[in-house]
Predict the 3D structure of the following.
Amino acid sequence: MPRCHGHAELFQDDCEREHRIAINNDFDERSSDDSSYEDEDCQYEDYLSPTVLSSFAAPPHYVNPRSVHKENLIWCSTVRGQPKSASVTAKAPESDQDEGGIARRTSVGIDTGMDDYSSAWAKAYRMVVTATRDTDGKMCQLVDVVCRDGKGFKEIDCETMTGTVHFMVVPDEEDEQEVAELNDGYRGLAVFCYFGSNMYGVPIDDQLEEPGADEAVDKAWVGMMNGAYDSLGALHELSISFEGKDQEGVAKALGKLQWY
């Protein structure tokens, strides 16, 4: 691929934040009425607090300003492709203290729903991957997966709690551009996107490092678990893999896109 670095970003529809706030408000109210509840500081502020929203939850690059959907940035990572690889992977780092557990401060909770066989949980998310060329600093948005109107991530085998989608990024001039289905006869550049949102059959506590490293982060996770413990996963990976081209072919195809 051309020498460049990129940014993988995950956005979430604001309705998810509003849903979490409603659940935690109800939890706080019930807890304050319970005389046996010993935690005096039981108020849970959503991890997308007003301060975070104003400072970090920026709209996607090239966002449609007329869109009626408000999306908040919940996770991002700077990435760089490996030599001789057509894949770019952004992973939530594991804890330095708890081997195998995702560091709580590096991930966010994804509610993948219970008995959801239509990938409805993915509708709230948008994945954007933008590349910046090292040679001239120009940028190009390579991937923008919007999960609405039946499009976007689909859960693998309808039960894995992870999402995938593949599509054509740079159609060959001789390919049928309006055909969305991929097959071996395509000569264009296709991409496979992966949304590692949960670990099937693994409770959320076992996906994460042990609590105790950061009280504020631990409390944010408790707030996320209040409403969706059984179906809650810890985001562990966003990745894209180019298909149908070798390194030289990928570079040549990406060169056809508009870089700004």
